[in-house]
Every structure is written in structure tokens, then in C-alpha cells.
Amino acid sequence: MTDISGQELLGKIDTTRPHSARVWNYLLGGKDNYLVDREAADQYKKTFPGIVDIARTDRAFLGRAVRFLVGEGVRQFLDIGTGLPTMDNTHEVAQRVAPECRIVYVDNDPLVLVHAEALLRSSEEGACDYVDADLRDPDKILKLAARTLNFDEPVAIMLLGILHLVPDFVQVHQIVMRLLDAVAPGSCLALTHATLDFDGEATAQVEAQREWNKKADPMTPRTRADISRFFDGLQMVEPGLVSMSRWRVEATPWGEPAEVSGFCGVGRKS
Question: Could you tell me which residues come within 8 angstroms of residue 195 by beta carbon, excluding any fewer than 6 positions away?
Fold first, then answer.
């Protein structure tokens, strides 16, 4: 559980600026957001409607990735930047397949942690914990996660939609490498990341992002080449680094789904 009470956390919520977790919740159809978040999201959608598909495909990737990882024998998950609880959260997907899975959620938005205490309940066989920490402090994350996770056994590090919130590439790459250094062989990294590499709506996306960055924590889309560096030293799981809509999706009579402006991938530590 968190180290401070829900009331203390609620007192820290800033409702004057949009927050990415609450905006994402709104884009996914959730109700745990404020007017400032809805206004920011609606403005983004007006300029770049594709953001809705990005949010949905990001969430769908989470489910496919977790099911894959559990099928590969992973029973521990470190979900950093978890966002507000919706349906099919990491622990629900994992424990539905293997009830003994252990999950640690990490976020630094007080509203996320308030809802985590109330909603993210573990199975009896497994465990869930909730850590109030920032991605930029990986040592704190690892220290607190060790209350629940055994780092001598494989851990899946989940970094969905969060790495592009750290603008300095050198810094964020070092953070990812620090997290990977701490986990055992057989551990995996699963991530999603914004990009402008898909040309279809790049101009609209840039304009929408420019307006967003004036109001909230800035996003920094990166190229495929840069994003691939987060998997340095890892063995990429097929199909490699691809659009979030195309990672291990089932074939349909209409062929592959349309690409969205976000990369995803899973890599395994030897």
C-alpha cells in the first residue's frame, strides 16, 4: 500500500493543469478526470483525431503483452506510469491467467494512487503494491518495489506511454538501463512510445502536441531508431518494434489494422 493516506494524496491534486494520466483516462472513456483534462483532450482531438486510436491501441497492447509474458512464465510485473485504473489493468490480465502473479504499480499523480488503493485489488494467491514515485527516480522505485517483487526472479518492466514525458533522451535512456540492470535474466521490457515516423497525420500531430506542451508536461515523440535504443542488450520478441496496432494481433479478413502514431515492443534480457 502507499505510505500516505488517500486524504493526503487528494490534497496534492492540481486541478489547474491537465495531467497526462487523467487525460488518458478521458480518452479511454473514463470518468476520473477534471474539466481542465477534458478541455485539453478535446482540443487535442480537434486538431489530431488520431489520438483516440492511439489511446485505445496502447491499452490493447497492454493486454496482449501481459498475456504473452505470463504465457512465457513471467509472474512479476513492475508497471511504471500505470495511469488511472480502467478495465483490464495489468494485475487483472496477469492474474486471470496466473493468480499467483505479483504486480507493483508506480505513478506520481495523487489521483492515480487514491484510485489504486480503492480499486486495484489482488487475487489471494498473488500480490499488488502501489508506489508513489517518479520515473526519474529509478532507485526509489526499485527500493520500494522490492517489498513485493523478488528481483532474483524475472520481472516484466512495463513502460507504456511514459518515456516520451522525459524530454532528455540521455536521461531517459539511462533510467531504462538502470531498471534493466536491476532485474534478473529472463526479465522483459515492454514499452509504448509516441512517434512522428508515420507520415499520415504528422502535421496535425505536431500542431496538437505544440498546444499540449504549453499546458501540461511536454511530450517528446522519438524516431524508431531512438526508441529501439531502449532495447539495447535485449533480444527483441517478434515482430519487433512496430506500430502499437500491429503487435501480435490476430489476422482478420481485412488484413492488418491501420498503423497508429506510436511504437511498441517487447524485449527479453538474456
Answer: 221, 222, 223, 224, 227, 261, 262, 263
